[in-house]
Model the fold of this input.
Amino acid sequence: MRTYLEFEKSIAEIEMKIEELSALVETSEAETMSVELTKLKTKAQKQLEDLYGKLDPWMKTQVARHPERPRYREYVAALVTDYSELAGDRTFAEDPAILGGLGKFLGRPCVVIGHEKGRTTQERLKHNFGMARPEGYRKAIRIMDLADKFGLPVVSLVDTAGAYPGIGAEERGQAEAIARSTERCLTLGVPMVSVIVGEGGSGGAVALASGNTVLMLEHAIYTVITPEGAASILWRDAGRAKEAAIAMKITAQDLLALGVIDGIIEEPMGGAHRAPERAVASVGAAIAAALDALDGKDAQTIRAHRRERFYKIGRIQEAAPKPAAKKR
Done:
């Protein structure tokens, strides 16, 4: 059964009626029922288009967090063949919040890394809801080292609310691990394409998203802190999360305009969770195109391209010089 978001109540009611009527049509040849069913489906589609055509940043945040959006393992299953997953950071432990390995991405040998939130309650607990500890980022560094060594492009799929903020993680050097993972992304001599497929939260996302090309799914978000966290800090009221989401410019559309990302991948109408296979295929095509654009470039050019990409985000356009004052 589909999970509906709070703002989708009107659509949920219509689609429930469609299910009920569909069951009756299967057991009856009543032409009237078939006509009514067609009308309801048309109405539901129209409402869906109207609603998703004007989502505000807070609504997009809820869509980005939808529990039925495609996860890392689903992307890998559909897009990567001969996949060999690698485990452990060779320092402390294995962290299942970040997964990665080697394989052929749509036929191209590469390295794939990303956050895994899990689908069921048991899986979410196992993967810590995609919130990695230091060992997760150190594992990512180890995998990126292999990519650099063997000349394999890197694809990263980002979907996390942020790095795990627990005491144990801080004791084991969470900030240092995030910084070194970010640094490794920036110093790779091979192409790196990163896609924000759900939530892109704080340093936990940047540590895997500092690529040559950074893309976002249409209803994904990318932010320095969750809207709830920002509202708690600014106004001491997490209930003002919607206000914070609007002010922080966290949507793909805002970030493309600001030059933080390089492109937006269109989602199926109603979000990636309504047609996961189509969403995964769109992500695969966008990544393949981005990798094609980086083909044939040497390590020095790749690093310079990536460095310039991030430098220009914070670069302020100098104002035109004011004309000199006339002498009296």
